[in-house]
Design brief:
This protein has two domains: about 25-75, Homeodomain-like (Arc Repressor Mutant, subunit A); about 80-215, Tetracycline Repressor, domain 2. Helix content is about 70%, strand content about 0%. The protein has helices at about 30-55, 55-65, 65-75, 75-100, 105-125, 125-130, 140-165, 170-190, 200-215. It is elongated.
Length: about 220
């Protein structure tokens, strides 16, 4: 008996579209979209397992791509981690400088900065943990990036303080570092409260503490 082409199809219909199996890789994406997808998958794996416990196999699987595709974009786990760190630090720097420059009223400035920092970690606590709690934090390339961020932000705060109070540059820088550190340390503790302390209440407490301190250095004409 001759097997007629199409004899297995439903009468007059098209062949059914095959269902994607769970192991099937994702479709081709534009380079920027694929890079963003890989970074998101890497962040999930790094936060869950730490840098040293993360494997490129698991990152590729989480992103639903093959390892060759992953290596086309990021030749090593280290380069992938540093790209992710750079992305988060760039976003955080822009956010903090934006808050600092959002007003010329120093009381409102301190409030805006504290609130911006808390909202950053509230919106993406994985990013904050990856940046500030990584097991790679003592690596020279990582620590230098963190120092660049801390210095950029603290220097911006110090310039405002120096202009207003006429304090020497190094003294203003020390105050800038202190304010930046207050935001970072308190916000990291706030994460540990698991939502039991309202974000706005927490940021307002630290703002009031910081402002009561910094306002003791009055403006000079």
């Amino acid at each position: 008996m001759v097997h007629e082409p199409g004899a297995d199809r439903a009468s007059g219909g098209e062949p059914p579209t095959p269902h994607r199996t769970s192991g099937q890789r994702s479709a081709r994406l534009p380079r920027d979209e694929r890079r963003a997808q890989l970074l998101a998958a890497a962040q999930e794996v790094f936060v869950a397992n730490g840098y040293h416990g993360a494997a490129m196999d698991e990152i590729a699987e989480t992103a639903h791509v093959s390892k060759p595709v992953l290596y086309q974009h990021f030749p090593s786990k280290r380069e992938l981690y540093l790209a992710l760190l750079d992305s988060h630090l760039t976003s955080l720097t822009e956010l903090m400088l934006g808050a600092l420059n959002s007003t010329t009223d120093n009381d409102e400035r301190v409030q805006a900065v504290m609130r911006a920092y808390y909202r950053f970690i509230a919106s993406d606590d994985q990013a904050h943990r990856l940046v500030f709690e990584s097991d790679l934090i003592n690596d020279p390339d990582v620590s230098s990036r963190l120092e660049t961020f801390n210095k950029t932000f603290a220097d911006a705060v110090a310039r405002v303080i120096a202009e207003d109070t006429k304090l020497p540059h190094l003294e203003a820088q020390l105050l800038g570092r202190g304010l930046a550190g207050m935001a970072q340390v308190s916000a990291r503790y706030w994460l540990e409260t698991d939502g039991n302390l309202d974000l706005d209440v927490a940021s307002d407490l630290i703002y009031r503490l910081a402002w009561r301190g910094i306002s003791r250095f009055p403006k000079e004409s």
